[in-house]
Amino acid sequence: MAFPRADAEETPIVKSFDDADLRERTVDSRSSPAMKVALFRSLFRGREDVYALRFESQKSGRSGYQPDCANEWVRGVCEKPKIKCTDCPHQRFHPVNDMTVTWHLQGHDDAGAPFVMGLYPMLLDETCFFLAVDFDKSNWRADANAFLDTCRLLGIPAALERSRSGNGAHVWIFFDRAIPASLARRLGAYIITETMERRPEVGLRSYDRFFPNQDTLPKGGFGNLIALPLQKRPRDCENSVFLDSNLAPYPDQWAFLSTIQRIDRPTVERVLDKAEAAGRIVGVLVPSDGGRDMCTMANTAFAPSERFVDCRGYARHAGISAGQRNLRREGIATAGATQPACSAGVIPESGILPGSSHAPASL
Q: What is the tally of structural domains in the chain?
């Protein structure tokens, strides 16, 4: 999409929310756009040198996300689809800045074109500022609530957001500093395990994936992406909004975002150390094919002969708990399974986590 953007890092319209004085101030629907953007960027943080933009073909109806590049379709420069964005020697990606976030929140760019922004959660040093968990089938309500209940029992702050389509949900866990993606994913895997143990009848069939869904960056790639929340168009339909314990949208989404707590790395490590001391050593999520058919997770305490290899079959393991049996029925991959590289070119919309939103007036 070719419209003017500032390629250089712009001067922030307000200081970062990492500053103590701003953290003490509550942002709500009456706050300035600058304050809302600052709060948003303090929570939904990923790579800032590149982002993905949603597209929809009027000819084919196909939609998806791809890196937003100033050289896209420039004759003699861009050679898509022959050459992938990750392999292109003429990359000129637009950065994440206050302007692009504002466009996302208001639903269009300065030329009036629809603007839906996707974020790459994994940083170049293979760390991340948040973990997002996707639930996307008909029973997403029960599964997401069960997951949230486990978070509360473990003392882990989490926020529930209805998906862009309205047919699923995303649970967000935020960190006060970037932590290794492998550590964040282990935390998520442990919460999934505990949820299955505590509520084996739930089954978590709607669980889809983690964001980020890799421990390490694919060579030359960006990792998977997630559509950012609070984009105006779905928000107007009460989708892409954050929900309370009754699954009703918070009346003031910005006031709610202001209350979100971030976890520090020592807390994450203490939770996982306690899990390991109790013999609850967990694996992490691995995608089986990059799409919605996912291998979920495995307990690495199982002997290799007891591990479930076929992600689409059923486990044959005697003497395990109901929760562990259900984990295997849901499709458990052995820990340490090879993870396929995530394409950094065009990502089908069905292959990523939808966004979320709710904001007053222009934002």
A: 1
Phi and psi torsions of 169, nearest 5°:
-150, 160
CB 157 within 8 A of CB 151: yes
pLDDT per residue as tens digits for the range 312-350: 222 332 233 444 444 443 443 323 333 333 333 444 443
Q: Are 202 and 143 in contact (CB under 8 A)?
A: yes
Can you read off the two tokens belonging to residue 23?
């953290």
Structural domain includes residue 299:
no
Write phi, then psi, for 55 (nearest 5 degrees): -130, 160
Tell me the per-residue pLDDT of 53-91, one tens digit each, with 9 for 90 and over: 998 877 888 888 888 876 666 677 666 777 677 666 666
What domain range is 109 assigned to? 20-121
Buried-exposed string 301-310: b where 16+ CB fall within 10 A, e elsewhere: ebeeebbbee
pTM summary value:
0.76
Quickly count: other Cβ atoms within 10 Å of residue 83's Cβ: 13
154, burial (CB in 10 Å: exposed 0-12, middle 13-18, buried 19+): middle
Strand boundaries in 80-168, DSSP class E: 117-119, 127-135, 159-162
Question: Which residues, listed in sequence order, are joined to residue 67 by a DSSP beta bridge?
Answer: 52
Q: Residue 61: inside a domain, yes or no?
A: yes
Q: Where are the beta strands (DSSP E) in the chain?
A: 52-56, 63-67, 117-119, 127-135, 159-162, 169-180, 207-211, 226-227, 242-243, 347-348
In a domain, 349, yes or no: no
- Residue 200: is it exposed, middle or buried by C-beta count within 10 angstroms (0-12/13-18/19+)? middle
Contact 204, 330 (CB under 8 A): yes
